[in-house]
C-alpha cells in the first residue's frame, strides 16, 4: 500500500499525542497507594508500620481545655521540647513545637469578650496536622509531606529553609532555625536529631514514638487532658469524646481541615 | 609556522601545569588506608566488611529516605539474616562507639565532609 505523506504525518501526530498523555498524567498526580510522588499535587505517603507500631487510618488529637492547668501545660511543653531537642531561644527567634497561648489567639472567630469567667483562659497550640495542609502544597522540595495516616511530617534532610511553609501555615505552627540550635540546648536526647541552621521544624505527632508503639509524649504526661487516636474508628477515645462534648477547631473556615479538636 | 617559539613555550607551560599533580607527588608516601578503631563488642556489621566499606554512604542515604519518608524502620541483613533498626544513633553508634576514631578518621584522610552529625547527636559527642 502506498502511504501518502499527509497520512503519515497525521498518524505520527496522533501517536505523539498518545505517548504524551500517560507520562503527563503520572507527573500531575500519583496515587497514594504507590510511594511515587506527584509533581504538582501533593500525594500521601504510605506508612509501612512495623509489627509494634500503633496504626490508624487518621490520627487526631482532642484537647480538653478544662483539664489543662498551668502545671500540666508546662509539663507537656517541657517533655515535648526536651525529647525532641527543641531549644529555648530568648527573643523572637524561639522555636516551638507545642506551646501555651491565649484562647482568643487560638480561636480568632469563635470567641467573644463575654465568655464565662470560669472558662479556660489559655490552652495549648501545636501543628494541627491538617487534612488539607497548605504547608505541604507550597513546599518546593517536598520536605514537608503527608502520610496516609494524616500525619504531616518534616524531612529535615530535604528542607532548604525557604520558609514558604511558614507563610502557608495559618496557625503559626512552624519555627525557623535562625541559628545553630545546639548552642541553646542544655541537654540533648541522643535518640532524636537536633536540627541545623536554616531548617524549619514543627510537631510531628511523635511519629517516631508511634513507630515504637508508644503514644505521643504530650498525651502521656497530660494527665488525661489530651486524647489521641484514630478519627476513622467510631470506638476510639477521640471519637467518643467528640460525640459526647462540644468541640471546636482552629479557623475551620480556612478549609485546612485541622485534626486537633478542642473541647470547650 | 608562525610564532613557533611562543607556541612551544605555551605548550611547555601547559604540559608542566597539567602534570603538576603527578611529579609533585613523586617520592611522597603512597595513600594508606587509615587504621580505624574496630568495635569491641561485635564481630559482624550489618553487611560484609567489603560492602560496608564501599557502599555505607549509599546505604545510609537509603536508610534515611526509607525511615523518614516511608516509615520502614527495619533492615533485614543479607549477610547474617538478622533484623536491625535503621538508625545511626540506635544501631551504628552502638558498636562503633567512637566517631572520632571511626567515621572521622577515614573521612578526614580522604577529605570528605558528611554533615550527618550536624543534626544527629553523637552520644559521646564533644560539647561545642
What do these coordinates show?
The complex is a heterodimer of chains A (264) and B (128). Chain A is α+β, with helices and mostly antiparallel strands. Chain A has a single domain, classed as 2-Layer Sandwich (Alpha-Beta Plaits). Chain A has helices at residues 5-28, 70-83, 103-106, 134-138, 164-168, 207-210, 217-220, 237-244, and strands spanning 44-45, 59-64, 98-102, 122-126, 144-147, 152-154, 175-176, 200-201, 226-230, 247-248, 260-263. In chain A, the strands form four sheets. Chain A has a four-stranded mixed β-sheet with strand order 9-2-11-10. In chain A, a hairpin with a 4-residue loop joins strand 5 and strand 6. Chain A is elongated. Residues 30-36 of chain A have low confidence and may be disordered. By secondary structure, chain B is mainly α. Chain B has a domain at 45-128. Helices cover 48% and strands 5% of the residues of chain B. Chain B has six helices and two strands, in the order αααββααα. Chain B has helices at residues 4-18, 20-24, 49-70, 88-95, 103-109, 116-119, and strands spanning 74-76, 83-85. Chain B has a two-stranded antiparallel ribbon. In chain B, strand 1 and strand 2 form a beta hairpin. The mean pLDDT of chain B is 89. The A-B interface holds A 35, 45-50, 53, 85, 145, 147, 153, 155-157, 182-183, 188-196, 207, 211 and B 64, 68-74, 89-90, 115, 118-123, 128.
Amino acid at each position: 500500500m502506498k502511504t501518502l505523506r499527509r497520512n503519515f504525518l497525521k498518524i505520527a501526530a496522533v501517536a505523539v499525542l498518545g505517548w504524551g498523555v500517560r507520562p503527563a498524567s503520572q507527573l500531575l498526580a500519583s496515587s497514594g497507594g504507590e510511594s511515587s510522588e506527584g509533581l504538582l499535587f501533593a500525594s500521601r505517603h504510605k506508612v509501612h508500620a512495623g509489627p509494634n507500631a500503633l496504626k490508624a487510618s487518621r490520627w487526631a488529637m482532642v484537647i480538653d481545655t478544662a483539664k489543662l492547668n498551668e502545671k500540666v501545660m508546662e509539663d507537656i511543653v517541657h517533655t515535648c521540647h526536651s525529647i525532641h531537642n527543641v531549644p529555648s531561644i530568648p527573643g523572637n527567634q524561639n522555636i516551638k513545637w507545642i506551646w501555651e497561648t491565649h484562647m482568643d489567639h487560638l480561636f480568632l472567630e469563635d470567641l467573644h469578650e463575654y465568655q464565662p469567667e470560669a472558662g479556660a483562659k489559655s490552652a495549648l497550640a501545636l501543628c494541627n496536622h491538617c487534612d488539607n495542609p497548605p504547608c505541604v502544597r507550597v513546599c518546593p522540595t517536598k520536605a514537608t509531606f503527608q502520610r496516609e495516616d494524616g500525619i504531616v511530617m518534616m524531612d529535615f534532610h530535604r528542607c532548604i529553609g525557604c520558609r514558604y511553609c511558614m507563610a502557608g501555615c495559618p496557625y503559626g505552627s512552624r519555627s525557623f532555625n535562625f541559628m545553630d540550635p545546639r548552642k541553646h540546648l542544655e541537654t540533648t536526647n541522643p535518640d532524636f536529631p537536633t536540627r541545623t541552621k536554616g531548617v524549619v521544624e514543627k510537631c510531628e505527632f511523635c511519629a517516631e514514638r508511634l513507630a515504637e508503639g508508644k503514644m505521643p509524649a504530650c498525651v502521656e504526661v497530660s494527665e488525661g487532658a489530651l486524647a489521641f487516636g484514630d478519627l476513622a474508628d467510631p470506638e476510639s477515645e477521640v471519637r467518643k469524646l467528640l460525640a459526647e462534648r462540644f468541640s471546636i477547631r482552629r479557623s475551620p473556615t480556612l478549609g485546612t481541615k485541622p485534626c486537633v479538636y478542642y473541647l470547650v | 609556522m608562525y610564532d613557533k617559539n611562543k607556541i612551544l613555550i605555551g605548550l611547555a607551560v601547559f604540559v608542566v601545569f597539567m602534570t603538576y599533580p603527578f611529579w609533585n607527588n613523586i617520592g611522597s608516601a603512597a595513600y594508606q588506608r587509615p587504621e580505624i578503631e574496630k568495635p569491641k563488642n561485635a564481630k559482624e556489621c550489618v553487611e560484609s566488611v567489603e560492602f560496608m566499606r564501599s557502599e555505607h554512604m549509599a546505604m545510609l542515604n537509603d536508610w534515611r529516605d526509607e525511615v523518614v519518608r516511608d516509615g520502614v524502620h527495619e533492615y533485614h541483613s543479607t549477610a547474617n539474616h538478622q533484623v536491625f533498626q535503621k538508625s545511626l544513633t540506635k544501631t551504628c553508634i552502638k558498636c562503633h562507639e567512637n566517631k572520632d576514631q571511626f567515621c572521622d578518621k577515614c573521612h578526614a584522610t580522604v577529605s570528605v565532609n558528611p554533615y550527618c552529625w550536624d543534626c544527629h547527636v553523637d552520644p559521646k559527642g564533644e560539647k561545642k
